[in-house]
Amino acid sequence: TRLWKIEDNTQENQIAIQEAAELIRQQEVIAFPTETVYGLGANATNHQAVAKIFEAKGRPSDNPLIVHVANREQMKPYVAAVPPLADKLIHAFMPGPLTVILPSNGTIANNVTAGLSTVAFRIPDHPVAKQLLESCQLPLAAPSANRSGKPSPTKASHVYDDLYGKIAGILDGGTTGVGLESTVVDCTGEIPIVLRPGGITKEQLEQVVGNVMLDPALAEQHDKPKAPGMKYTHYEPEAPLWLIRGTADFFQSTVDRIEREGKKVAVMCSEQLAASLQADQIKVIGSQHDLTQIAVHLYDALRSFKKTDVDIILCESFPQTGVGEAIMNRLTKAASVVVDEEK
Ligand code: TXA
Ligand code: MG
Fold it and tell me: What broad class of enzyme is this (predicted)?
């Protein structure tokens, strides 16, 4: 596995990105930063190259990948149509943390779409991702660059921990911006449907296309979600995560109860809750008044606990407004238990 450190726009950067692009043209797999999380990219038009992504991640083959392109023109050779509402969303939010599901014309490698008749596209808004796409002149199939089941990587070191020795290279562009994956929107029907909440909020989408639905499977967890990837174990930390819903007093009594059983507790919470909490280990992940910061720090925090130091991780719940929808979606998936004060 090659490692390239990308600092500000230097001559060496150009060379590193060209080397990475050349490896992609040779059907190898490269990890690169995007504005959401690190992606694991391969030539989306080549079945064997794409197969290497599934292999490196240990990803189930029925879970389709997002195709990353440099601009909207590069989607056209692979889609049957761009429905008008998709067109509006593309204009408004791309490049950016949005993925649109479009009807496929069947020309993209069929392991990218896991045999579906639709294909997911995204135009990343990150200088390194953009230069890589420009340089290799290929659409890149790219899931998040973690081992399947682990939190998505927001730093090159996370990719290194999960995939070193399994992929051709890692472009290290520092910490990613949003910290959570893109919003996935199915644009093949009359009304756009959010299959996965993410960096672009439902409110933002509605300002551009009016009525937007959330996939009902997001609310009812026993329903089979339409984005195939949503059904697997996800974002798992090394110790069980309990998501706590209730007051600061209830949170404290839960910590005390577990500590009395002789177990080591770690807490992941806002600075506001931390100020009134007594616990052995407290990891502050931002302010209740700025959920975008909570999103930025979430996956790094989930990865920071080692099973040797912690028996149970307790995490605060956040309001499901704006990016809070995506934060709570990921935390609910990461959690083995939701502890509700009301019940
Ligand atoms: O921000 C992101 O989207 C990151 C960066 C690297 O771009 N990528 C990412 O990819 O999160 P991945 O593979 O971890 O998640 C892709 C999600 C999965 O839930 C998958 O099931 C869904 O998109 N998806 C892909 N193609 C689809 C399709 N044709 N129909 C429905 N869902 C699809
Ligand atoms: Mg993923």
Answer: transferase
From 34, 65, 94, 119, the mutation candidate for ligand 1 (largest count of ligand atoms within 8 A of CB) is 65
120-158 pLDDT tens trace: 999 999 999 999 999 999 999 999 999 999 999 999 999
Q: From the CA atom positions of the chain, what is the Rg in Å?
A: 20
End-to-end CA distance of the chain: 50
ipTM exceeding cut-off 0.90 for this assembly = yes
Strand order across the 183-186 sheet: 2-5, 169-172, 30-32, 39-43, 140-141, 66-68, 118-122, 98-103, 183-186, 193-196, 213-214
Mean pLDDT rounded to a whole number for the chain: 94
What is the tens place of the pLDDT at every residue in 287-330?
999 999 999 999 999 999 988 899 999 999 999 999 999 999 99
Quick one: 103 exposed, middle or buried, by C-beta within 10 A (0-12, 13-18, 19+)?
middle
Residues 6+ apart with CB under 8 A from 327: 180, 291, 294, 295, 298, 318
Residues with CB under 6 A from ligand 1: 34, 36-37, 39, 63-66, 99, 101, 113, 116, 118-120, 122, 142-144, 181-182, 184, 195-196, 227-230
Q: How far apart are CA 158 and CA 115, in angstroms?
A: 30
Mention every residue, 6+ apart, whose C-beta is less than 8 A from residue 91.
none
206/201 Cα distance (integer angstroms): 9
Distance CA 196, CA 339 (A): 24
Asked, as a colleague might, if the bond just before 103 is cis with ω within 30 of 0, I would say no
